[in-house]
Design a protein that fits this description.
The complex is a heterodimer of chains A (about 200) and B (about 80). Chain A is mainly α and about 200 residues long. Chain A contains 9 helices and no strands. Chain A has 2 domains: about 5-90, Orthogonal Bundle (Rna Polymerase Sigma Factor, Chain: A); about 100-195, Orthogonal Bundle (Arc Repressor Mutant, subunit A), CATH 1.10.10. Chain A is elongated. Chain B has one domain (about 5-60). In chain B, α1 (about 5-15) packs parallel to α3. Chain B is elongated and about 65 Å long. The relative contact order of chain B is 0.10. The model of chain B has no long low-confidence stretch (mean pLDDT about 90). The chains are: A mainly alpha (about 200), B mainly alpha (about 80). At the A-B interface, α2, α3, α6, α7 and α9 of A face α1, α3 and α4 of B.
Chain lengths: ~200, ~80
């Protein structure tokens, strides 16, 4: 998939910059559903997710003149709604959650794994219905991760930001992103194992 | 290399970021430890499952709710 703007993007951008009212509505209708899906992945409450999308559009409208047009409008809006969702999360009281340590592998004193991993059923040949079930399972288990780890994993592995972009979005160093991502993936692996363990 | 160290290196291994010496130790551990080979396989499968959740693999979302469209446009008018 190319990230370069197409002709439709350029024409819509021209109309947005000209302040055409219909252009704003067209943008909201064409991109709103996808942006809402992104916000819902970060925010548990539907009201918060919709607020984040609204904030994202208003932020985009305010800065449309500064949008350089090098990327697609949808890519630019995706980054904005991710940031709006993270901002909304910061205003929410954190729920009690498991420590990441509880979700990581355990070791014996001499450094061997205490509870060896078991083979999983492969998702390689899953039918579309099974893939849908797997998506639901994975997204639900991601929600069980502590927030600081969940956000990094979501940004890197689901939303497709790179390490530097993730570091800026969450306000930590690139090395801290890598360390947190690895622990988040390990924890997710552990959460998925009871559901997927057992080859065959 | 212990299993603990092996698991610490898994992401760097998959990203091709291990140095030659670390890579050699990593490979040698795999020759000796079937549990860690299984762990590496399930870590890879976790990444594969995450990719299932990424667009464009994930199905397109529903249309945007009309109430949200109207709320955004009203907020835009109010912000003028």
């Amino acid at each position: 998939m190319t990230d370069a703007p197409d002709g439709g993007d350029r024409e819509l951008l021209r109309r947005l910059r000209a302040g055409e009212g219909g252009a704003y509505e067209e943008l909201v209708r064409s991109q709103g559903g996808r942006l809402l899906a992104v916000a819902r992945r970060f925010l548990e409450s539907e009201e918060d997710a919709r607020d984040a999308v609204q904030d994202a559009f208003l932020s985009a409208f305010r800065s449309i003149d500064r949008f350089e047009g090098q990327a697609r409008l949808s890519t630019w809006l995706h980054r904005i709604v991710v940031n709006a969702s993270l901002m909304k999360l910061r205003t929410r009281r954190r729920k009690p959650e498991k420590s990441i340590e509880e979700l990581l592998p355990r070791f014996t004193e001499d450094g061997h794994v205490a509870e060896p991993a078991v083979e999983w059923r492969s998702s390689g040949s899953a039918s579309e219905a099974e893939r849908r079930e797997l998506r639901t399972l994975v997204l639900s288990q991601i929600q069980a991760l502590p927030e600081a780890y969940r956000n990094v994993l979501m940004l890197r592995d689901i939303e497709g930001l790179d390490t530097e972009e993730t570091a800026v979005a969450v306000g930590i160093s690139a090395n801290a992103v890598k360390a947190r991502l690895h622990r988040a993936r390990q924890a997710l692996r552990g959460l998925l194992e009871p559901h997927l363990g057992g080859a065959g | 290399m212990t299993c603990r160290e092996f698991l610490d290196f898994v992401m760097a291994y998959l990203d091709g970021e291990l140095g030659a010496r670390e890579r050699e130790l990593f490979d040698r551990h795999m020759d000796l430890c079937p549990d860690c080979v299984t762990y590496l396989g399930t870590y890879r499968e976790t990444l594969r499952l995450e990719r299932l959740c990424r667009e464009p693999d994930a199905p397109l979302p529903d249309d945007v709710p009309e109430a949200l469209v109207q709320a955004v446009l009203a907020a835009k008018r109010a912000a003028k």
